[in-house]
Amino acid sequence: xxxxxxxxxxxxxxxxxxxPRATRPQVLTLAALLVxxxxxxxxxxxxxxxxxxxPAAAAGKRQKSAPKASPTPEWDGRTKVLxxxxxxxxxxxxxxxxxxxxxxxxxxxxxxxxxxxxxxxGSDHLxxxxxxxxxxxxxxxxxxxxxxxLLPKNKKSxxxxxxxxxxxAAIDYATDDHIRTTVxxxxxxxxxxxxxxxxxxxxFCGAKGGGxxxxxxxxxxxxxxxxxxxxxxxxxGFKDLAPLPFDFRKEVTGGRAPCxxxxxxLLKAMKSYGWRYDASSPGDFQIWPSKKKGIWxxxxxxxxxxxxxxxxxxxxxxxxxxxxxxxxxxxxxxFPQWEQQTxxxxxxxxxxxxYGSRAPLFIGNHFENWNGGIYMKxxxxxxxxxxxxxxxxxxxxxxxxxxxxxxxxxxxxxLRSLDPAQSPDWSAVVK
Length: 431
Hints:
CE4, about 10% strand, TIM Barrel, four-stranded mixed β-sheet, alpha/beta, globular, five-stranded parallel β-sheet
């Protein structure tokens, strides 16, 4: 079955190349990112599922109070299987960055966060590739899981997307084989020290998408995410697979909304779950993060495109939009040029802060082979180039939030006062 998309195969928007560095990129960003709903599912070949599996209770109607993470028990070294055996508690995650406050005059680390929307291990094996690449270069990444990627298609009626009919989604449900491989990669990613966050469920954008949802509707979407990931064994009938080695209630501390829509009400909703950050802002300059409504705001960032002719977002889809006008397979003759342009933009953004303010660099991507896979190849190069440099820490959003929380408020305020390319006297900034 083909991926869901408009009758033309994709939604087109007028191309704009006149975005100056002093403007917020919402118009360009959101017009471009509306297309992601029809693309992020990957090239899935849907198959049947086990018809004998028993469905978990649908989460279309919320309970009056949202479930919160349970207190962390004292770790006794034993695995504690949770619920129906889909998840387990295996102790505190290993290998995490130790958050310590900066010493007076100390230059901050250069943090780089590579994040992935969807987190599906499909036939192209991109999830496992980037998990292994991160391990090779001593990096941690953030993998945002889409909840319905663990829900079989024959149980899709369990999903009640806000403002939509049961089972409706703007992306395809995964095949049985891809559910199995995704579960396997999620477990390995966690054991490698990576973060598992949420990309929510149905990937609805535009009308009746996250931007139109109330606080309660966002809570419904979150509750259903938890239901699907905590009951994948019940819903799939895959009793032969081991439980995931972590408790979603404890480990999920943030996410990215589809198409970067709906953050105002999402921020209000996520407080009920104890989440600590949101990566749904449509874009900002490369500045040190601040909090919105008490939650860390980790936006995509404006990077120099085409040697600084204009600024575009630090996401693969926005390169696609500007290079091939949203066509997922443009002119093959231009692939080498576009790949180099993409690498150059990422590196220009990195160098601007590495030799300047040391503000974290945020890069968002999808597991896709658009334009011959050039955006994946670009990330391969960037990981190898930056994660090996002195003073660089390639971390997850969760690790960055931990580090920021460990800093003195006056230090963070001073860091936020710096321009991206400003290389200050650190003794005057970090006191």
